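To: structure desk
From: M.T.
Subject: fold request, one chain
Message: Could you run this one when you get a chance? Sequence is below, nothing fancy, just the single chain.
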Amino acid sequence: MSLLESPWPIDRIWHANQPGADPDATVSLNQGGARLEVYRFEDGVAFRTMAADTYAFRRALASGDLRSAVGAARRADPSFNLTDALRELLDDGLIVGAISPTTRPC
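Reply: Done. Structure tokens follow.
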């Protein structure tokens, strides 16, 4: 799984250029950017649009600690819900282990 952020609506551009897409559909670059979770699915690639707070939380958590990740998410949206965010990580199978603050790596 990777996180991808763009100032352009790359998800809508991608969908508009897929086989079977409406040939009359247009995508305006003024529609805003995209925050995406990109992952492998079977023989292809899939992506999911993410809210600003969820994206900020997951991005910060990947490179820091829980406290800084919550701070980043709450700066993006003060109503960020940590319980829901942790449940989503577990549901998505993205938490694979934890290290206690008193545990020292070998």
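Reply (cont.): Strands lie at 2-6, 34-41, 44-49. Let me know if you need anything else for the meeting.
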